[in-house]
Amino acid sequence: MESLLINPTTQTPRVTFDAHAGSGEIVGVSFPEHANDFYAAVHEWIDQYFAEDTTRTLHVAFNLSYFNTGTNKEIRLLMKHLDKLYTEEKSVRATWFYEDGDEDMEDIGKAYSTNLSVPISVEAV
Amino acid sequence: MLAQEIMQHYTVAKSSQILMMFKGGLSQNIVVDLGSLLQNRLGFDVKVRRMFGIFVELAQNVKNYSAETEIASDGSEVGVGILILADSGTHYSVNSGNLVRRADAERLKTQCDYLLSLDKAALKAYHEERIESDPPPGSKGAGLGLIEITIKTSGNVHFDFAPFDDAYTFFSITATVEK
To answer: Domain B3-178 is of which CATH architecture?
Structure first.
């Protein structure tokens, strides 16, 4: 399966999902005009990844310094997607990185970690 | 414009400690460019990021909801308004202004008053409820921008309205963020 690689721009993050490594990363800032279009590719990749082999494992790292309201909703949908896979007994986990001292980002990560079943580690960098 | 007139603009900008001001159509590209300009000027530490988040919400709010529109260079129709970022020493003041139809102003004012009446927990619950629901008809976002601005400023936001003409009201948002 091909990797998903989206280069970063001033308004969108770097997105890297690697099937061989079983890991994905979303890094940078995110405030595109149409956040749902941008993140659709990630949902598709993840669905394809597990459609090919349900025993695969996936670790998704979120490392965002800033995102807007539209992206907030998309991150939530992505987290719910991972959560759904986890409840379907797929081997899925996530890490939420935040810059040490950024309480807003820390709180968002902790809320996901508390409210969802999928294991989410919240780590300062 | 002659020196006298330009000096007036300069004097106002200086006395109001304006870091950046933009008046015009706010296409997504302009919002991104203004954001880059702001980062070049102020860096991107945690406090700047918090201010930047509010700045982007205000800009996208004008872009999506101003009753005055123009066609951007990419052909899209975008809202016209004004954005002013000022430094008040201990705080950043992030301001936006745009026209709204007089008929819409009352509904908007009711919504703003409602947001300001909620405490933090109630705001978060309302945000949660709205993010889970489908966008209201005619909304270009999820109708979440004003809620997020109110949460991010911990209520240090002022919504104001001024008569413009028979058809329009001028709507302004002033958000204050600690430096």
So the answer is: 2-Layer Sandwich (3.30)
